[in-house]
Design a protein that fits this description.
mainly beta, two-stranded antiparallel sheet, 3 helices
Length: 131
C-alpha cells in the first residue's frame, strides 16, 4: 500500500479500540479531504479491501511528521477496521511506503510528498526491521 491509514476517534470496531486513535479535533491543521469521485460526485469516504480484511474511512489532510521530516499530506482515518487482520497487529496504523501508483493519489503518498519537497538529503531510502 502507498497510503497512511490510522484508526480514528470515531472508529468503534474491536480492532480500532485496541489501538491509539487519531483525534482530528486536537489538530490545528487537520481538515477533511476528497478521496475521489463516487457516482460522479466528490466523496470524502472510502473502503479499501485487503487480502484478509478491509478498512472503511474518511480522507483527511494534515501535517504529517516522521522524525524531523514534515509535510502536508492526505491520509485515511479509519471509521471501521475488520478484526482480521487488524486486531492481531501490535502497531496502530499502516504507513504505506510503496510507489505513489499504489496510493489513492500522489497527495496520499507520504514518500512522494516528502521527496517532491526535497526533504531528503539523498535519494536513498532504507528500513531497519527488528523483532
Amino acid at each position: 500500500s502507498g497510503n497512511l491509514i490510522v484508526p480514528g476517534s470515531e472508529c468503534y470496531s474491536h480492532a480500532c479500540q485496541m489501538h491509539k486513535r487519531f483525534r482530528a479535533d486536537l489538530s490545528n491543521t487537520s481538515r477533511p479531504s476528497v478521496c475521489g469521485m463516487y457516482t460522479g460526485r466528490p466523496s470524502n469516504r472510502l473502503m479499501i479491501h485487503f487480502g484478509t480484511g478491509h478498512v472503511r474511512g474518511k480522507c483527511i489532510e494534515d501535517e504529517i511528521c516522521i522524525g524531523g521530516l514534515c509535510t502536508a499530506a492526505h491520509f485515511i482515518e479509519a471509521t471501521e477496521e475488520s478484526n482480521k487482520p487488524f486486531s492481531s497487529f501490535r502497531f496502530d496504523g499502516v504507513l504505506g511506503l510503496s510507489l505513489s501508483t499504489l496510493s489513492r493519489s500522489n497527495d496520499f503518498s507520504i514518500m512522494h510528498q516528502l521527496s517532491s519537497r526535497h526533504s531528503f538529503k539523498q535519494r536513498i531510502f532504507s528500513v531497519f526491521l527488528s523483532s
